[in-house]
Specification:
Elements lengths: L1 H131 L4 E5 L2 E6 L1 H5 L9 H16 L3 E9 L4 H16 L9 E7 L5 E8 L1 H11 L2
Parallel strand pairs: 3-4
Antiparallel strand pairs: 1-2, 2-5, 3-5
Helix pairs in contact: 1-3, 3-4
Length: 255
């Protein structure tokens, strides 16, 4: 009886021990699982934070990309507008340069014409001095060469209207100079200080007639002018540039 009781006690003790051991293992296992769950939760939290950060960066990149595309579109639009404006400015500059070049050429023509007239006037003045002698009264004014003769020299007095021998010789020499310069306009100018313009006109006409007797000198080239001499009297023969031809040339150049 006692032996049986001991066996029952031993069996109960063994069962209790086994149960206690299993419970301890279970508790340990639960602890491990709880630790694993905690680690997993931590990993999930970290992953969630990383995903959230990545999403925020993605949104930022998307916004920056959108802004960059907008900036690029604006830049392309500005570049297109700049290209158009630059082309227009280039065309305007080229047009202005072309216009300026044309103006320079036109001004050069005028300047060259003035220089040519001055050179011709000096050449004619030299011809007059060589042909008529150093004592002849001649000068250059505004591109015109002017030869002056007194009434006494040309007519023997201020009331006569017929050329003397000296007067005829004077007009003949000037006629040869006029013939040698066919591009010059000729003006015979009578100056009077007494107001008797009729006699002065007759005297100027006599000089013009003497000039036209030179072969090659057309009477139509000679213009007569009579005016108050303002303390000067006599006859002036002017060889002037052809102003009408000059004005026609300038008008043609500036059309």
């Amino acid at each position: 009886m006692k032996t049986r009781t001991v066996l029952v006690l031993l069996t109960g003790i063994c069962c209790f021990t086994l149960q206690a051991q299993k419970k301890s293992e279970l508790i340990a296992k639960v602890g491990e699982l709880e630790n694993t769950v905690r680690l997993l939760n931590d990993s999930i939290s970290i992953a969630q934070r990383q995903i959230k950060s990545a999403n925020a960066k993605a949104e930022l990149f998307e916004k920056e990309n959108t802004d960059l595309r907008a900036a690029n579109n604006t830049l392309l639009s500005n570049l297109t507008n700049f290209s158009k404006i630059s082309k227009q400015n280039t065309e305007s500059v080229n047009s202005a340069l072309t216009s300026l070049k044309k103006k320079e050429e036109q001004l050069r023509v005028i300047t060259d014409t003035f220089s040519k007239n001055d050179s011709i006037a000096i050449a004619i003045f030299t011809q007059i001095k060589q042909t008529m002698g150093p004592e002849v009264k001649a000068g250059v004014s505004n591109g015109s060469v002017i030869v002056s003769g007194s009434f006494d020299q040309l007519f023997g007095g201020d009331s006569a209207a017929k050329l003397t021998e000296d007067g005829t010789n004077w007009t003949t020499k000037i006629g040869e100079i006029i013939k040698a310069n066919p591009d010059r306009a000729v003006v015979v100018e009578g100056l009077n200080i007494t107001g008797e313009l009729d006699i002065t006109y007759a005297q100027a006409a006599a000089v013009a007639n003497g000039l036209s007797k030179t072969d090659g000198v057309d009477a139509g080239r000679i213009q007569l002018v009579v005016k108050d001499g303002n303390f000067k009297e006599g006859i002036n023969v002017k060889l002037a540039p052809d102003h009408q031809a000059f004005y026609s040339m300038v008008k043609k150049e500036f059309q």
